[in-house]
Amino acid sequence: MAEAGWNRPALRGRALEIYDAVRALPIISPHGHCDPNWFAGNEAFSDPAELLIIPDHYVFRMLYSQGVPLETIGIGVAREDRDPRAIFRLFAQHWHLFLGTPSRQWLDYTFANIFGIEQALATESADDIFDQIADRLSSDDFRPRALFDSFNLEVLATTDGALDDLAAHRAIRDADWPGRVIPTFRPDSVLNPAHARFEVDVPAMGVLCNVDIGTFDGYLEALRRRRHWFLDAGATATDHDVSVLTTEWLDRPELERLYRAALANEISASDAVRFHGHMLVEMAQMSIEDGLVMQIHVGSTRSTNRLLLERFGTDMGADIPKRVDWVSGLDGLLNRVGNNPELSLIAFTLDEAAYARELAPMAGHWPALRLGPPWWFHDSLNGIRRYFDQVVETAGYRNLTGFNDDTRAFLSIPARHDLWRRGVSLHLAEQIDRGVMDAGDAHHLAAVLSRDLALDAYRLKER
Amino acid sequence: MAEAGWNRPALRGRALEIYDAVRALPIISPHGHCDPNWFAGNEAFSDPAELLIIPDHYVFRMLYSQGVPLETIGIGVAREDRDPRAIFRLFAQHWHLFLGTPSRQWLDYTFANIFGIEQALATESADDIFDQIADRLSSDDFRPRALFDSFNLEVLATTDGALDDLAAHRAIRDADWPGRVIPTFRPDSVLNPAHARFEVDVPAMGVLCNVDIGTFDGYLEALRRRRHWFLDAGATATDHDVSVLTTEWLDRPELERLYRAALANEISASDAVRFHGHMLVEMAQMSIEDGLVMQIHVGSTRSTNRLLLERFGTDMGADIPKRVDWVSGLDGLLNRVGNNPELSLIAFTLDEAAYARELAPMAGHWPALRLGPPWWFHDSLNGIRRYFDQVVETAGYRNLTGFNDDTRAFLSIPARHDLWRRGVSLHLAEQIDRGVMDAGDAHHLAAVLSRDLALDAYRLKER
Amino acid sequence: MAEAGWNRPALRGRALEIYDAVRALPIISPHGHCDPNWFAGNEAFSDPAELLIIPDHYVFRMLYSQGVPLETIGIGVAREDRDPRAIFRLFAQHWHLFLGTPSRQWLDYTFANIFGIEQALATESADDIFDQIADRLSSDDFRPRALFDSFNLEVLATTDGALDDLAAHRAIRDADWPGRVIPTFRPDSVLNPAHARFEVDVPAMGVLCNVDIGTFDGYLEALRRRRHWFLDAGATATDHDVSVLTTEWLDRPELERLYRAALANEISASDAVRFHGHMLVEMAQMSIEDGLVMQIHVGSTRSTNRLLLERFGTDMGADIPKRVDWVSGLDGLLNRVGNNPELSLIAFTLDEAAYARELAPMAGHWPALRLGPPWWFHDSLNGIRRYFDQVVETAGYRNLTGFNDDTRAFLSIPARHDLWRRGVSLHLAEQIDRGVMDAGDAHHLAAVLSRDLALDAYRLKER
């Protein structure tokens, strides 16, 4: 059995010195998926299973891989039919499966440092720990705003659909609470004709903006207005999920033809990809106009398990990364706007083979391009090491963007930023050891990577 | 010159502690290519060159790459025309070529720990070492069964063609010797129409099983019977070599058409791939029925050197790994049977770029899928490090399968498992150092990775 | 701010011992892009900006990526319109961008060890350092030949177009100076029909050689003569830049047809690739005849930034690596001549995913093939580590070729070889630590990797 709290940083020597200097810096969370309603309503979180287990795809995918049916941990089960304590107990019985995974490190940190639990999780301690967490969740100190404050969050960005009214964000701004929670413009459903909601959401966007989206010009105008709606609510960035990366500037007649076909749901799959690729270039151009930073996440084959897709829907742990050709994929976009340093384009990959071969050379050349942090499966101690190993020598540190937690698990945010800071400290300590830099530069970079770069790359100080 | 015995583990501190606790565990060898007749007949092994040099493709490929003609080390030469001492001498002269390779580490271990040789191999010591080895090989302590016992082998699986009568295995079971040597069902020649023996072996299988293989149903029935033949002889697994990975469930009329064409040797290359891909799904389904674990080895371009192929045949050191797309390649199989935890499918890759990007996410999701250990070129200290680095954070340890030596070099088995245990110890010591786990968990995992996982993944305790 | 001189090797323990034994070995530079006229004329180098900043694509690409216009550092500006001091100052202001990059390590070494500068580079010290460098450049000790001698250069190979008269090299040989500066035959413009100068350079080659290049036989004869022209001037190698790797032996009628089309500038892109691929095999065959070592550099998408290409031409920092399939790409060449140990073919890749998967297995098999050192973006401390990590276990050390600096930055040559020797020392110290070899073997290999392998692979001792 593990000793409780063992995973508090086991760093030593230089790495510990570096870590100690940055561990308490404010947290910048410029990309993630928390629900703004938590902070608008400030209601207590529900039970431990609902909060920590059921929505965490890292957790349920591992359980499922070892033969645990998803229903037994409450997935696809109505809330009133779930037994949170039984779910938590089942999870505790399988806790050994998570040895070596970031999930275990995040949760260990969360149990020990957020909930103050002193026991190690195990079958025997499950009920007791469940009770301790449930008890704390009912206290005022564990309401969303109090946690936000105690986490030392300087800013938290959410991700919001293009049609979102941002009422929660407006309520937060109007509240008597200084926490900075900002939206991010995520227009996949109105840019990508292959999106299931495209032909519904585009007309709805027209109504919202009071613009005739019957023409391509009207459509562009509506997009511009939605971006300004987000800007007005505090957004500094957009975010784009791209399945097949290609960007190409199409001529107007073809565009209008594709747009009409898309609206009528009569566009071919390959034309949908081309239209989406063109629209990414339009977004980049609008970013130059309005200053929104542009994020692009590429590289997952979604829902590869068809049984789970039919039974439970998307995001069931069967999204698997794939190869991405970044050079040809971004060619159209970069050759149109990539020489403009006013554009801030942040690229995220799941194909690590592209780090040293493509992305670092590209980020070390194009004025507009920066490289996002290790993402999803690679948001881990080894993932961070591989990232620095393959990226820094060619792109330097200033073409990076610090850290994103990219999570909807609010409670895990301190743990994730802590893991990043540990990874940064280990990396920089090794840089000193191998004669790449001196301790002064390493300490400076530790703060840059923990906080400053994210503020800068996401233009969070400018607004 | 090297000091003799230097390669006995140079581990220190935590890594040495972990290693010391697992170094003497029994060896589980669930996949390899030893000859069962060795243990059935228990005859003394022949001379040192015949045993250690001539059949080892790792050894002769390196010599060949540096201009040593294959004939000079006895390849393509009749046994009576070979001079074993001269071959051993030539090998010793080139011993420096192997610095840094696992071959050198395996052989150093074997010389020192199996044969008790105290000198370092060199041109000057070659004859003396040859004599020492030859001398020991003639003693009863070095007969196959005695070595098996002294190696502390708990179980050794061989690999056997679908038509094998398994007489050697039956002789071993009937002998007054408790060693557990079991067969593995390797049906490539009766599943893959591109296999040179397909149209001969399928009818032969029909005769063996007393089944009419003229129909596809008869063919399936014959396969089922051969699987039971292996089960009855102690097999717990099948093994499949796949060149082009694709799996697709074909409909019955097409299947029957392809089967007839395959039997008539009139099938196209692409149809052969499709038929083979379908048959892999059939094998997976039969595995659910009869409980045999299914192994799949993918990713080598075979015999890329046509001159050597013509002159000496296959397996001449010119098989080179290639890229594999695991997500699309296993799509048909996994979407048919991958959600069934009764299936145990073990995947081996030579394309390490797929570890973090595809295989670890897949093994960390599909109930049926586990990831085999680093294979062939990657069965090495760095290969083991890269494997753990890229796999564990996403798949955990329990979706792995421990170690395979995959060798026909019986004498090297202790060395290979020792190298794995060293690699495991180095990995786990680093996990502790970086705060990923505590010493108790690391010690537990060391035993799991050295023995338990292989027993479990290959269902060796169930039978 | 950095302490001056901090980047002098921070190695410790075993790594420092190994490094100390090889740091002062003579430098072998068998592949690079220095200008032979420097050594023929022995004129003083011009100002610091002209020498260190403006021609260095590593430097200006990083500045450009952070929004510094290329014109401001003198690119695309006539020499008389440049202000070297202002350029150097601008560079110093952006010195922090280079933290963690080999550029910074090379320049730090150069400032401290070549120019004896004791301050750290910074905005405040820029003018003073500029003056110190300018001052030293005007002294006789900093003329090209004196630097060559003080660098302890044993041999320096340049890279020269197929039509070069090699007058500078002849002048060097005739001079009263013992420095060995040799040419390398780089015939891209007369082998690759896609090269912009092909249809001009081939006829010019015919005139130079007094051969009728109207026939394919005449063309081959002209190439043979040019190779001998280079051999007579001291060359030991050829070098080939290949964009799309494919090699295939074409039959004579097709060859003659393609050759005529190429000369007439009427060849299709795909036929140009095939013709070039055939000519690489011809080059390999001529290498067997005349003994020139054959280098092949593969894997960059050139000039991906079209704006910069139009405005400033090629080599503007927008060349980005791409995937290469080495097995199929070299199939035609290797199956024709790869079994001949008389051929020495050295392959350089920018796609590191090919190291463990393809190149190490190939170099560990084919007698003709050796693997070049980490190149371009990968000529760095991490690049060196990844190279050894992925290559040595399968290819050993003797199928490698030591180090190339591949630079036109003459002043950086000692720094680059020093970084390689540091990387070698770190690698070998770890090999000892992990029990892969003993200290004696590691010390021996350090010298082999620092000097002997390059001499051997490039046949520099034979001539």
Summarize the topology.
3 copies of one chain form a homotrimer.
Chain A: H1 13-22, E1 27-29, H2 36-41, H3 48-53, H4 57-65, H5 84-93, H6 102-114, H7 126-137, H8 144-150, E2 153-157, E3 160-161, H9 167-174, E4 181-182, E5 185-186, H10 188-191, H11 198-209, H12 216-232, E6 237-242, H13 252-263, H14 269-290, E7 293-298, E8 300-301, H15 306-312, E9 320-321, H16 326-329, H17 331-337, E10 345-349, H18 353-363, E11 369-371, H19 381-395, H20 413-433, H21 439-457
Parallel strand pairs in A: 1-2, 2-4, 3-5, 6-7, 7-10, 10-11
Antiparallel strand pairs in A: 8-9
Helix pairs in contact in A: 1-20, 1-21, 6-20, 11-12, 13-14, 14-17, 18-19, 19-20, 20-21
List keywords for this structure.
homotrimer; 463 residues; alpha/beta; TIM Barrel; uronate isomerase, domain 2, chain A; 2 domains; four-stranded parallel beta sheet; three-stranded parallel beta sheet; 21 helices; 11 strands; 8% strand
